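hey m, so remember when u said the tokens were messed up on ur end? i reran from scratch. heres the input so u can diff it against urs
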Amino acid sequence: MIFLITALQSEARPLVDFFHLGGSDASSPFRTYRNGELTLVVSGVGRIASAAATAYAFARAGEPRNRPWLNVGIAGHPSAEVGSCWLANKIFDPSNGRAWYPSLVFDSRLPTAEVVTVDRPESRFEREALYDMEAAAFFAIASRFAPVELVQVLKVVSDNREAPASGLEPAEVSRLIGARVEMIAALVEQTRGLADELAGRLVNGPLDLEPWIGDRHVTVSQRRKLSDLLRRLAVLEGEVGPSPGEFSGAEDARDLLLALEERLERQGVAF
């Protein structure tokens, strides 16, 4: 399963058509569309709505782990061309100072930029960045359900200093998203391939944790965290990933986990 979260129905409409998604029943708390491989949830505008819709999608699907999550929608930018399509390389929430760094481990033709999540439509554009109202909350929640390599934010520029957002109609939003739907579909396929690659490694070559544990006392929760960190590094580094001997200086499980987290942070992965 691949999950798409949009804020607006007008953002969702061209995706529903392109992916041939069917609608859920009217009693659902969020408008939801799906086929056998993809679920799209329309959250509504703002952080709280986006976080709630992301958590709802996860629970409604049976809490699947390690599947792709994509936030797709419009955003403002001070100077980028209206209609241009961007991937987030940083997500910043000025309300609490937190930042997240999506890990782009696949080749993409799309340019990348920072996304700043704000409480109301931006018009001053104090940073040379994309501005939206959902990405930070989406990423904070979705990254609890999947490695950050599988959580991505894609934005289409809807307004800039020369073309303000006032008067932006739903039909124009749908047109902007629809014009980039093939780029969105390519991102869906890239994240699907990455998720399948990760799943294949876990199925065909299960992780042997014993060389990593050695004589260290490791709790059940630490064993799970160790497995998760090694899986993330396997996706990022492949055959040149870490070996237990590199971390022989870690005296206990806590030191080992901290060392692996630091290695991931050097790859641009945030926790």
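this time it looks ok to me. The first helix runs from residue 9 to 19. if urs says something different then somethings off w ur setup not the seq
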